[in-house]
Structures are given as C-alpha cells and as structure tokens.
Amino acid sequence: MKKILLASAIALSFTSCDVLNEVAGSVLTEGSTSAAPGLTNADVSSGLKEALTVGITNSVDLTSVTNGFWDNSDIRIPFPQEAIKVKNYAEDLGLNQQVTKFEATMNHAAEEATKEALPIFKNAIMGMSISDGFAILNGGDGAATHFLKQNTTSGLKTAFQPKIDAAISEVQLTNYWNPIINKYNTAMTFTGGEKMNPDLNDYVNNLAIDGLFKMVEVEENKIRKDPAARVSAILQKVFGSIGQ
C-alpha cells in the first residue's frame, strides 16, 4: 500500500512540474511577443524636434509665397479689431478700396517676414529642452506645437520683430494706413471721440507668429495620423509607436 501511495505522489509531482513549466512557458511567450520596440528619451526628443522642423519648413514654404497669408482664411490677418471703428468710418466715407489694400498689405508684410523666419524657428526647435517627451508624444493633436509655442513665443517675437519691421517698411504699409487713420482722427477731433493708432508692427508680428504656429500644428497632426507624412526613419519609429 505504501509503495502505491509513493508511486502516486511521485507521478503527481512530475505532473505538477509539467503544468508549472507549461504555464511559465506560456507567460514568457506572451511577454516576448507583446513587447513593443523600446523608445529612449533621445529617440522621442529627436522625433519631436524633427516633426516640428518638418512642420516649420512646410509652413514657411506655404506662407512665404505671394498671398500665402492673404488667400488662407485660417491665418489671414484681419483689420485690427481694436480699430474696427476706423474701418467702419473709412468704409462709410467710401474708402473701401483703401481698406482692402491696407488689409492685403498687412498680410503681404507677414508673407515677406516669414521668408526670414525659418532659421529663427529652427534654432528655437533645436534648443528645445523636453522634460517629459513621452507625455508630449502621447499628448494628442498639437501637443508638440503647444509645447513649442509656450516655450519659444517670447524669444521668437524678439527675434522676429526686426523682420516684421523691415517687411512693413518694404511693402510701405503705412502708406495705406495713414490716410485712413488720419481721416478718422481728424473726425474725432471735432466729435470728441477717442483717437486711435494701433501698433501695426506688433499687431502683424503677433498674428504672423500665430499663423505659422497654426500651420505647424496642421503639419504635426499629419505626422501623427498619416504614416505617409513620416518622411524619415526616426519619425516612423517615434510616431509609429503611438497606440502600440
């Protein structure tokens, strides 16, 4: 009887070992097949910087051409909102053509400025410090552009201002603005209304930068969603990992 019990115990022991080995093998197999290729911080940083560089390059190519801003309703620079009374007054006086020329010329100033913008934005991108690259990578549409905008707008504005000033001077923006604002301010002298003289350089600067960032976000989101837009190995590796 003892021999029978001993034999049964030995058989059960071997069977249990077989089951444990099978389970362990199954776990190891599942773990090895589900593991995605690892991304390092360097990979993520390089991928984000390249995505933004691609976005900036494409954006400048689209905006720096004639009517790049003027023909794009998403980034077209409108008559200054704080001076909308000036626009209405000018149109009431029959100066519609001058108003249109003024608006078009503001946009042409932005188009001229963006021709000089690429190295400025590239330097900002290359100097970007990413403390939490994975969070930005997985942050959804526009996350990298938002991060870049938050951390570079002030410096970009300072660097961009001379380009805007030169562009505004080159296209002689004030030649269209002065007749409109002078007529308005002359009327305000007699009516006691508030005279206006918005800082056109600052206004065009801000909206030119905003317009570029809008275009950069469009390009970033293409890379996030469309594999065909991932034009390099690092972009394919980094953005191809999203959702895996």
Descriptive report:
- This protein has 244 residues and is an all-alpha fold.
- The protein has helices at residues 2-34, 41-63, 84-92, 96-114, 117-126, 133-137, 143-170, 174-191, 200-225, 233-240.
- Helix 4 (96-114) packs across helix 7 (143-170).
- The chain is 73% helix and 0% strand.
- It has two domains: 1-35; 40-240, no CATH class.
Notable features of this structure?
10 helices; disordered N terminus; mainly alpha; 244 residues; single chain; 2 domains
Task: Give the SSE layout.
Blueprint: H1 2-34, H2 41-63, H3 84-92, H4 96-114, H5 117-126, H6 133-137, H7 143-170, H8 174-191, H9 200-225, H10 233-240
Instruction: Give the overall shape, derived from the CA principal axes.
Output: elongated
User: Beta-strand level of the residues, as a percent range?
Assistant: under 5%
Class inferred from helices and paired strands: mainly alpha
How many discrete domains? 2
Helix content: over 70%
Summarize the structure.
This protein is mainly alpha-helical and 244 residues long.
